Amino acid sequence: xxxxxxxxxxxxxxxxxxxxxxxxxxxxxxxxxxxxxxxxxxxxxxxxxxxxxxxxxxxxxxxxxxxxxxxxxxxxxxxxxxxxxxxxxxxxxxxxxxxxxxxxxxxxxxxxxx
Length: 114
Hints:
By secondary structure, this protein is mainly alpha-helical. It contains five helices and no strands.
């Protein structure tokens, strides 16, 4: 499934009682919450020797994707637009791929860094 199709399917489950501003805030807060749940699962795996539950992580990533899609839709931005903009930024930042040196120089933010 492509990102825009996903975004359209996910939009069916948005709370219709929320106006655009409340929907934006609800989804942005949800995105932070879901990121915290993912972090918590990975932290417990790393520091408490719990098995890494891939199914749980997949569900939480899906919840985060839903929130991301609603944030974007609330601002009339498609997920494919978000993805393309991010890939363009990464190409500028790491034209030859990631290296610690390239990360420190941030060529996308400082044109003289190249």
